[in-house]
Amino acid sequence: MRGAPPVEVPLAADRCWSVLQILLLLGSAAALLAWAAMPHRGHILKPIVLGVALLGWLGCAWSWWRRPPLQGRLRWDGQDWWLRLQSDPADSGPCARLVVTIDLGRWMLLRLRTQASTLPHARATTWWLPMSAAALGDAWHPLRCAVYSPRPAAPLPVPDDPAAPASHDR
User: Fold this and answer.
1) pLDDT tens, 44-75?
2) 83 and 29, same structural domain?
3) Same domain? 30 vs 50
4) Do residues 30 and 95 share a domain?
5) 154 assigned to some structural domain
6) Are residues 51 and 99 in the same domain?
């Protein structure tokens, strides 16, 4: 089976993904408020749990607000996925794995796991990459082919002495 040909696509802010994240934050805030509004009789832990949950929610909202949209390029070279961030003009090196998390036909959410050795700060990272047919245009179909094609198998090691019998023949 042949693998997908090389493809390179831009990474940019995606309105659908931003709206989904905002709705998730608002929905979780509404759930916290609804729970806080419920009457409680003698539950001393409820205000403490509510305070901790509210602090967690504020931390998530703050980190989402401060994190800039991912800008750069995602590239499939026929063997590996590569991530080039706009903040770092050099390729990150081959990424460990790319997985389709959500596929809605004209929109996909991809999860890209980078290897620790390929990052400038030497830490493995997971990137969530929203992709849409509207944003990618003609690159949409090649990207889908590359995402769903199997990675090529690693080449078999070549023995040092071709005349020597293989280890399983002995």
Assistant:
1) 777 888 888 888 888 888 887 777 777 888 99
2) no
3) yes
4) no
5) no
6) no
Least confident segment among 79-88, 91-100, 115-124: 115-124
Task: Give the integer Cα–Cα distance in Å for 83 and 137.
Answer: 20
Half-sphere exposure of 6 (CA within 13 A, CB side): 6
SS (H, E, C) the chain: CCCCCCEEEEECCCHHHHHHHHHHHHHHHHHHHHHHHCCCCCCCHHHHHHHHHHHHHHHHHHHHHHCCCCCEEEEECCCCEEEEECCCCCCCCECCEEEEEEECCCEEEEEEECCHHHCCCCCCCEEEEEEEHHHHHHHHHHHHHHHHCCCCCCCCCCCCCCCCCCHHHC
Q: Are residues 78 and 121 in the same domain?
A: yes
Domain span at residue 118 reads 8-12+71-148
93 vs 117: which has the higher pLDDT: 93
Q: Tokens for 66?
A: 């401060």
Judgement on whether residues 85 and 136 belong to the same structural domain of the protein: yes
